[in-house]
Amino acid sequence: QSALTQPRSVSGSPGQSVTISCTGTSSDVGVYNYVSWYQQHPGKAPKLMIYDVTKRPSGVPDRFSGSKSGNTASLTISGLQAEDEADYYCCSYAGSYTWVFGGGTKLTVL
Amino acid sequence: EVQLVESGGGLVQPGGSLRLSCAASGFTFSSYWMHWVRQAPGKGLVWVSRINSDGSSTSYADSVKGRFTISRDNAKNTLYLQMNSLRAEDTAVYYCARDSGGWYLVYWGQGTLVTVSS
To answer: What is the 3-class SS of chain B, one letter each residue?
Structure first.
């Protein structure tokens, strides 16, 4: 149950695109299409942004998109806005009814 | 509106016990799996435990297995986490979360802080 690997921080200017990677193993990200992404603003509860690798819940802007290749999932945010500045966490089902989160990535909008 | 409200956090000495509760409303509680996720101060999210809809199946992170017990009372729409043999590294905000009927967490509570310190 090792945490998924995310970059500690990424940054971009308003209007630009950024991609956050999430690297797991062949026991979690690589074998299950159950990767989800969560946004967390300081002092707030996490919010679901992407589920099942690529799907967006109702109400999440289409600027947010997800993908996966092999053992690495990615979250791309296009048309960056100031309110996107937050921490982002990936999560994968890891089998045997267990889940594993990534260490989190701090997104700074310059 | 779905609401999840955690309670029961506080200061406890190492080796002590604490029981967290999560009161659910706005949905049919007995139909969904529920989870506990924790976040140490300034750190990332860590999945802790999950229970199925009728309470017959549970699973745990290795770090809490044998010390924590997840349970639910569907008649009271309440989720619990019994935490025993607490360690300093268990200090965190504990969130309860509802799954989707799938493999991700849709709704989260606001969390309750557990501090393990002498």
So the answer is: CCEEEEECCEEECCCCCEEEEEEEECCCHHHCCEEEEEECCCCCEEEEEEECCCCCCEEECCCCCCCEEEEEECCCCEEEEEECCCCHHHCEEEEEEEECCCCCEEEECCCEEEEECC
Name the residue among B63, B106, B109 with its Cβ closest to that of A48: B106
HSE-up of residue B67 (Cα within 13 Å, Cβ side): 17
Across the interface, do A99 and B47 touch by the CB < 8 Å criterion?
yes
Q: What pLDDT, on a 0 to 100 scale, did the predictor assign at position A76?
A: 98
**First-last CA distance in chain A:** 34
Rounded Cα–Cα distance for residues B1 and B115 (Å): 30
- Rounded to an integer, the average pLDDT of B35-53 is 97
Q: Residue B6: CB partners within 8 Å, gap ≥ 6?
A: B20, B21, B22, B94, B95, B96, B109, B110, B111, B112
Give chain A positions within 8 Å (CB) of B95.
45-46
- Say if the Cβ atoms of B44 and A1 lie within 8 Å: no
Q: pLDDT tens digits for B89-99?
A: 999 999 999 99
Query: Which residues does chain A have with pLDDT short of 50?
Result: none
